[in-house]
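pinned: reference chain
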Amino acid sequence: MEKTNIHQLESTTDLLRNAIDKIGQVILGKNDQIKLALTCLLAGGHCLIEDQPGVGKTTLAHTMAQVMGLDFHRIQFTSDLLPADVLGVSVFNRELSQFEFHPGPIFSHFILADEINRATPKTQSALLEAMEEHQVTAEGETRALPEPFFVIATQNPTHQIGTYPLPESQLDRFLMRIDLGYPDRDAERLLLEGEDRRTIINKLQPVFDRHQLFETQQLAKTLHVSPAILDYIQAILAFTRQSSAFEFGLSPRGGLALLNAARAYALIEGQKYVLPEHVQLVLPAVVNHRLPVHIEAGSKQLMSAAQHIKESTSIS
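pinned: its structure tokens
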């Protein structure tokens, strides 16, 4: 494995801290959630934000795209949205006597799939290939999506009227699921007294460009992971598969997601190696949507087990 470049690590960490600060000017009092969303982007995954309407899900996505220097496209998911509305469609050109493919909005660097669970399962499934393979197959031809490619999907609580639950195969395509929650009193007061969020977003200057972001994603992959950390992750995976709290355990893909997210979080923290704390900090966001629980306390059991495994071994 390629060794981490210390000078590159330091300069990248400074850029990431600047990006977090800029996003925090818009999304007030949510530093932890901002770091997790950025972790997801750096790890090359996609992020699902589930929360009540009006807490800033769409605003976070728009702000991230602006700060990270990515082309932004919002797709409003509704019950009548069709797969072709997302992927694109072939239209017959009379002058050339042939069909021409008109790319859909999915052909962008940064996609906001807004209220994704308001679309039918058929339309939701249109994203599966794009999110996993970074390509779209339409009209018998496969077309590559631009890189980097990142999807943030927002989802209203599934008990609300007019929503469709995301199938497990769709949920598994998301590296992380996070929620924003209500702001604290001080942050909410600043929000009420301050400038309109859209005006602030438009004033923000990008911290990264696409080339820098790609290099940062590659840098995250070089961070050292000790055999002890791999043992730690495997012990967590084994717990989920053996515990009666869960219907089934984490898949190997879930383990890779946990490893990649921990690496990206360590990079944000300016570390050149992954610590158990990095694994624990990303654990809930990476695994909760992948683990159907038999009992309400399942997630708490997992966090307690992760801490117990750490304390009972020599990981440091």
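why pinned: The mean pLDDT is 87. Strands lie at 47-50, 72-76, 88-93, 98-103, 110-114, 135-138, 141-144, 150-155, 176-178.
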